[in-house]
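Lecture 7 notes: from sequence to structure.
We start with the chain below.
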Amino acid sequence: MSHCAAIREWYEEVWNKRDLSAITRMMAPDVVVHGLAQGGGALHGPDGFLQFHRAFTSAFPDLRLHVEDAIEQGDRVAMRFTATGTHSGDGLGFPATNRPMRVSGMTIARVVDGKFVEGWNVFDALGMMQQLGVAPQGDGW
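Predicted structure tokens for the same chain:
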């Protein structure tokens, strides 16, 4: 399976279908995930990622991620996605606002022996918080 196919499967199984068994099936036991932990640290192992996944999907029970582009080179795959959902849970640490959000993000993942071993993630967290009404709207640049 190509790395592009693997990351598309990851987003479909883990995020859209909520198949938690796919996390341990597709991640190496010592995986390191950057860009998702509070305070800027890294998540370690499938269990570390699972905690983030549970919090985010409890905040957005109808969360959907759509892969826009995927490009691979060597042992890495880069992917651009769009996430949509309604903030109807308190998994982010504040009460549900019942507002919709739509944000974009990107992931670069390193794959070894068919498993994700490291990932770097960025997404428009400020834009999401502004859409939820918990961060002030900026005037732009």
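Points to note: The chain has one domain: 3-132. The first strand starts at residue 27 and ends at 34.
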